[in-house]
Amino acid sequence: MSTPERPSGGRFARTERTTPHRSREKITYERAAAYDVLDEALFCDVAFTGPDGAPRVLPTFHVRVGDTLFVHGSTGSSMGLGGREGFPVSVTATVVDGLVYAKSWFHHSMNYRSVVVHANARPVDDPDERWAVFKALIDRMGEGRSERSREASPKENAMSALLAIPLEEVSVKRRQGPPVEEPGDEDLPYENGVAEVATVVTGRL
Ligand SMILES: Cc1cc2nc3c(=O)[nH]c(=O)nc-3n(C[C@H](O)[C@H](O)[C@H](O)COP(=O)(O)OP(=O)(O)OC[C@H]3O[C@@H](n4cnc5c(N)ncnc54)[C@H](O)[C@@H]3O)c2cc1C
Known about the structure:
With about 200 residues, the chain is of the alpha+beta class. Helices cover about 15% and strands about 35% of the residues. It contains 3 helices and 10 strands.
């Protein structure tokens, strides 16, 4: 996939919402680390309050452009993309790097890099911004793909809602390395180790 422009470095300010209860040593607020995950993950999950007041989470394709994450969907989708003034969302994206097998059930785990974003999502209505973001979404599927496919027709454009999610309140969590073992478990007659996991795209056009 093509790599979006990388804005200036730095760190996100930690907020109450991005402060974890557990494993604080695994959390970072480095902007570059967050953008690496968002640019590598093939999709994200968007959580929001549904029209019935109950929590919803929906997986969807995304693209990061500068300091904004964009997701799109049908104007009729329950993500409430069509015409709302903007609303609170929480978004997460994860890259799994390994399955971690320990000697005990308790310490089985995964190696991963994950991002959580808290934001107010804004519907994108400006035609120029919409065109540029939809182009970036298509190019994320494969470099130059937007030049090698037909642009959206006015009808298709009208059917597609677009949400801008500012990347301001963001945390990254990382777990890497071998399994943790309890003292005394090392000699148990069980195999342990890490099986690497990778997402492989074959036959890209
Ligand atoms: C692939 C995968 C598998 C996991 N499996 C487990 C599991 O089996 N059991 C388990 O307990 N946990 C698991 N986790 C970790 C889980 O996501 C939480 O981090 C964990 O439950 C501790 O949450 P907390 O109470 O500290 O978070 P909270 O205190 O509820 O979170 C507060 C804030 O901390 C930040 N934060 C918390 N977790 C993450 C994260 N993962 N990535 C980025 N920011 C974060 C967010 O901004 C969040 O709003 C897994 C994570 C991944 C990516």
